[in-house]
Design a protein that fits this description.
33% of the residues lie in helices and 24% in strands.
Length: 396
């Protein structure tokens, strides 16, 4: 029997958090290689990128492996500086114009390429870019988005604050910020926020009370009606001053916020990060496909929540396993849903890339505020276009 009353907490970080600055630069490089390679007449299927970024006080280091149209170090540096400027860093300790940028990218290993490329090795089809396990998840907690409520609203708080910062609607907010929402559940349904934590970098001279006055109206605006009550505990900039932030306050690395990127801890995460990787890396593309599968299952009404695990071997196209868990909420058995997944979704690397149209420069927007539960035509893994077919096939 499930718990009648329980609490669950998830956190998010803003686009100006040092790890997210690193994710943004890495994803900008993925998009750059797709744009340049396709413009030069190359097939997008020949593009390979695995870019890692380190950010610290006025320093950016970019390393990793690539294949595609030659892109100069100067072009990559320009993209990195433009990303830092767009986020809003013009501070003495981290400035888009003054930071040193080292580009250490090199060619992809021929051994890895041989196992992945179509028509090579023993498997005459594009194989997985690495071994690994990937998870997808969806639940009916948030209508439309079909995401767990704690991570969804943690993202929304920071997105809204970023909007007012960029627009100039509210002065005093700086790029680095973190949020955390604790949600109370009754009979498995989210019903309110027991605690909300918000720490945001700010202009010098503002007190925690000043910051509270700035951000609380936007938090109330984002949260569902009735979720914030007199019993909701707020912690706004609980350590006091937060003037030094971003990569100047703490070093950032690509791929260090994988729980923020996915489901806020409500569902498992595979071993690999997403940002900086082209979709031949199943760490990214199969996680997107897993979300697509799970979201369509929930949207079809087959279950209230669904988790899928998919596993791969490097260079091998066929998944080594596909597992479904609906946590006892399914209207049909998990075994039937597993069979429907195999019939309605293509989960081999080349097939899922085509299914979701992933060989394009679409990755910059994914670098902050989560990869899932998002709106926009390029978030193809958020479509629910298979829901009706699944519903009919299940006899519902």
């Amino acid at each position: 029997m499930g718990r009648k009353t329980y609490y669950f907490t998830s956190e998010s970080v803003s686009e100006g958090h040092p790890d997210k600055v690193s994710d943004r630069i890495s994803d900008e490089i993925v998009d750059l290689y797709f744009r340049k390679s396709v413009a030069a007449g190359m097939s997008p299927w020949d593009v390979r990128v695995a870019a890692e970024t380190l950010t610290t006080t006025n320093k950016v280091v970019i390393a990793g492996e690539t294949r595609g149209k030659d892109v100069s170090k100067e072009e990559i540096e320009a993209v990195a500086r433009a990303a830092i400027k767009d986020i809003g860093y013009e501070q003495s300790g981290f400035h888009h114009a003054h930071a040193s940028v080292d580009v250490l990218l090199h060619a992809q290993s021929v051994d890895i390429a041989a196992g992945v490329d179509k028509g090579t090795g023993t498997h005459k089809e594009e194989g997985a870019g690495d071994q690994g396990i990937m998870f997808g998840y969806a639940s009916n907690e948030v209508e439309g988005a079909l995401m767990p409520a704690p991570i969804y609203y943690s993202h929304k708080i920071l997105e809204r604050l970023a909007e007012v910062r960029h627009s100039g609607e509210k002065a005093g907010l700086e790029p680095d910020a973190k949020s955390q929402v604790s949600v109370r559940y009754e009979d498995g349904k989210p019903v309110g926020a027991s605690a909300i934590v918000l720490s945001t970098q700010h202009a010098d001279g503002l007190s925690p009370a000043d910051i509270s006055d700035i951000v609380k109206p936007y938090i109330h605006e984002v949260m569902p009606d009735g979720w914030i009550t007199d019993e909701t505990v707020f912690h706004i900039n609980p350590t006091g001053n937060f003037v030094i932030g971003g990569p100047d306050g703490d070093a950032g690395l690509t791929g260090r916020k994988i729980i923020v990127d996915t489901y806020g801890g409500m569902a498992p995460h595979g071993g690999g990060a997403f940002s900086g990787k082209d979709p031949s890396k199943v760490d990214r593309s199969a996680a997107y496909a897993g979300r697509y599968v799970a979201k369509n299952i929930v949207a079809a009404g087959l279950a209230d929540k669904c988790e899928i695990q998919i596993s791969y071997a490097i260079g091998v196209a066929e998944p080594t396993s596909i597992s479904i868990n609906t946590f006892g909420t399914g209207r049909v058995s998990d075994a039937i849903i597993s069979q429907l997944v195999r019939e309605h979704f293509e989960l081999r690397p080349a097939g899922l890339i085509k299914m979701l149209d992933l060989k394009r420069p679409i990755y910059l927007p994914t670098a902050a505020y989560g990869h899932f539960g998002r709106e926009g035509e390029n978030f193809t893994w958020e479509r629910t276009d298979k829901a009706e077919a699944l519903r009919k096939a299940a006899g519902l």
